[in-house]
Every structure is written in structure tokens, then in C-alpha cells.
Design brief:
304 residues, Rossmann fold, 2 domains, five-stranded parallel beta sheet, four-stranded parallel beta sheet, 15% strand, binds phosphoric acid mono(formamide)ester
């Protein structure tokens, strides 16, 4: 039985295959409409979500399966003190596969040790978000037509942004990747990501706090929100929340084929005036998320 806790749980070849299947689903959805008949997905979200939970649920429905679950810990027996392990053992009796989001780093890994059905990490604290990364890889593959030879700017909260940590891990496996890490001093990429992933794999990277300094070099600009829920004090959040606001003016120097991505939700970091720019890919990225999750559910359930 497979779990997906970290993007490293998938080989490059498996990711390639998932992207291929997702593209086929986009072209031929009817071929897949009954693949998960009589199967149930449980979405256990101990932390808020719009895209991840609903795209998983839409994915399972479009595969002909059913969905059960909860969208907050307050509406589950967690509120009465039940442990993650006991919740997982219980839900395994009612479902074939579980997608789980939790505010504590490592909770999906702990859950996977007790589970009798596959566990998918749908985001754990400031740690990892592997299915967002699969979404990002499908987006890059569709929009840039390649996963190698790219200069990728990651901008915003690179300390707590779990999507950034997973994306750096995934993209570091491809050739010719360079990162421009754009953040205020307080929200820099964690040392473990720089040491264990970037330096270990000889990936070129630059750190800066100036979004305009390197914007003309970028093939992809991946904006992120400052993660309010991970701050220890409100004062620091208020000081940093509007540090970067991408607008038309800042994009003047950027390449014509720049791909602007954002895992969403957006707060202020991309001005709405950018939404009509043909380089804005973040709402397409939302749509790609459903197709890659359909491909992932099929893989985890070992359905051809
Ligand atoms: N990108 C993402 O994880 O969005 P949600 O928090 O809405 O699921």
C-alpha cells in the first residue's frame, strides 16, 4: 500500500506518468468517469481549505466515486479529544483512501503508520504540500512545455510556505533549474531546505529581498501569501503581510512568456489588475489541481 506524505515518495518517472494521465483525463474525461465506482475518498481536514479539499472531492466524483469527511476539527471527535491515530483507524473502516490536512508537521506521516488505507498528505503545517506540488508540476508542464532549464522566482513567505518547500524539492530533480529566492529577511527559506536540497544537489540559487532585481530573468514567478496562521505575534504579521504586491508596473520588465503562479489563497500579494495579464496562470493552476488529483487517486488505488 502506497502513501503520499512527501513529494520525494514519488520517483521522477512516477511524476511523469501522473502528468501524462492527468493530460489524458483533460482530453478524454469520459474514459475515466466510472473508474472509481463504489470507491470512497475520505477528506479529513483539521485545517481550513478551499482548493485542496474541494478539488479532491471533485476529482473523486468525476471518477465515479463517493466522498465522506469533515472540513474542520471542531466538527469531528477531535474536539472531544480523540487522537489522530484513532481517527485514522476509524475512517479506514469507512473509506478506501484518505486525504488529510493537519496543522501539525508530521501528522499525516503518523497517521500513515496506523492506517489500513492509503494516506495522502494534503498539507501539514509549514512542512509539505505534495499534491500542490503535483498541481504546480502539471501547470509548469502545460504552460512552459518543459520541467527543465527554468529560472524560478519564489517570492513571499519562504519560511512557512509549505508549497515552496515541496516545489523546491521536486524541481531540484530536473536539469538546468535555477532559483531566485525573494523574501524579507524574517521569512527566508529554512536552512534545512538550502542545505539538504539545494546545496546537496548543486542547484544554483540566489537570495534577495528585491522582487524587481531579477524579475527580467525569470521563466516562472511563484508568489506566496504571508502565512498569518503560523506567526507567533500579530505585530510581525502586520509588518510583513504587504511586503510584496505584484502589479502591472513591476511586471513591465518581466519576460513576455513569464508564467505567474500562486498556490492561492491570495491576500494582497498579487494585485487584481494582474489577473487579466496573459502571463497570470494561477486560476489555470487551480483547474489543473483537479486533474492531477484524479490521476493520483487512480494511482494510489492501483486502478489502471
Ligand atoms: N493551495 C491550497 O492549498 O489552497 P487551500 O488552502 O484553499 O486548499
Amino acid at each position: 500500500m502506497r502513501n503520499l506524505i512527501d513529494i520525494k515518495d514519488l520517483t521522477e518517472k512516477e511524476i511523469e506518468e501522473l502528468i501524462k494521465v492527468a493530460k489524458d483525463i483533460m482530453l478524454n474525461p469520459e474514459k475515466y468517469s466510472e473508474k472509481c465506482k463504489h470507491k470512497k475518498l475520505a477528506t479529513l481536514f483539521f485545517e481550513p481549505s478551499t482548493r485542496t479539499r474541494l478539488s479532491f472531492e471533485a476529482a473523486m466524483m468525476e471518477l465515479g466515486g463517493n466522498v465522506i469527511g469533515f472540513s474542520s476539527s471542531s466538527s469531528s471527535s477531535t474536539a472531544k479529544g480523540e487522537s489522530v491515530s484513532d481517527t485514522i483507524r476509524t475512517v479506514g473502516a469507512y473509506s478506501d483512501i484518505i486525504a488529510m490536512r493537519h496543522p501539525k508537521e508530521g501528522a499525516p506521516l503518523v497517521a500513515s503508520k496506523k492506517s489500513i488505507v492509503p494516506i495522502i498528505n494534503a498539507g501539514d503545517g509549514g512542512h509539505n504540500h505534495p499534491t500542490q506540488t503535483l498541481t504546480d508540476l502539471l501547470t509548469i508542464s502545460c504552460e512552459k512545455k518543459r520541467l527543465n532549464d527554468l529560472t524560478i522566482g519564489l517570492c513571499g513567505d519562504l519560511k512557512f510556505g509549505r508549497t515552496v518547500h515541496s516545489l523546491i524539492t521536486a524541481m531540484s530533480r530536473y536539469k538546468g533549474i535555477k532559483f531566485v529566492l525573494i523574501s524579507p529577511e524574517e521569512l527566508k527559506t529554512p536552512e534545512y531546505v538550502k542545505t539538504d536540497i539545494l546545496k546537496k544537489n548543486n542547484i544554483k540559487f540566489i537570495e534577495t529581498n528585491d522582487i524587481e532585481e531579477y524579475i527580467n530573468d525569470l521563466d516562472i514567478l511563484y508568489m506566496t501569501r504571508v502565512q498569518k496562521e503560523r506567526f507567533f505575534n500579530e505585530e510581525d504579521y502586520l509588518r510583513l503581510k504587504d511586503y510584496y504586491i505584484l502589479n502591472k508596473e513591476k511586471l513591465k520588465k518581466a519576460k513576455e512568456d513569464l508564467c505567474i503562479m500562486h498556490p492561492l489563497p491570495r491576500v494582497n500579494e498579487i494585485s487584481t489588475e494582474v489577473d487579466d495579464d496573459p502571463r497570470a496562470c494561477y486560476f489555470k493552476q487551480v483547474a489543473y489541481g483537479k486533474y492531477i488529483r484524479m490521476a493520483l487517486i487512480l494511482k494510489m488505488l492501483e486502478i489502471k
